[in-house]
Amino acid sequence: MSTLRTIHDVPVLMCASEGGTIGEERDVLDLIGDAGYQGAQWVVVPAGRFDESFFRLRTRVAGQIVQKFVQYHMGLVVLGDISRHTADSSALRDFVRECNRGRQTWFLADEEELRERLKG
Prior knowledge:
Helices cover 42% and strands 22% of the residues. By secondary structure, it is of the alpha/beta class. It has one domain (2-113). Strands 1-2-3-4-5 form a 5-stranded mixed beta sheet, sandwiched between helices. β2 (10-15), α1 and β3 form a beta-alpha-beta unit. The chain starts with a strand and ends with a helix. The mean pLDDT is 95.
C-alpha cells in the first residue's frame, strides 16, 4: 500500500514497509506508474523493501533501478538504516554519498531528514 503525501508542496508517494520485494524492472515500473498516476514527484521506499542484491553494486540492480527513475523524471528515496550494507562496501558508501549530493536519488535515515531535504 502506498500513500500520497505533500511535503513542502512536493507530492511524495510513501510506500509501506510491508509489501513485495523490489528487485526487478517490473517492480520498479509498477512503482513509477503508480506514482505518476497519483501525481507524485518522489517515491519513498523503505530500505527493507529492496532485494539484498540492490545493496551489492556488482549486481548492477541499484544502477538499473536508479536509471529507471531517472528515465521517468521521478525522484527516488531509499528510507531507513542501511549501515549494515555500507559497513561492508566502500563502493556502496561512495554510491550513497554521490547520490545524496544530487537531486534525483537520496538515501535518507528517516522522514525528518526527508522533510529537511524537500524544504530547500
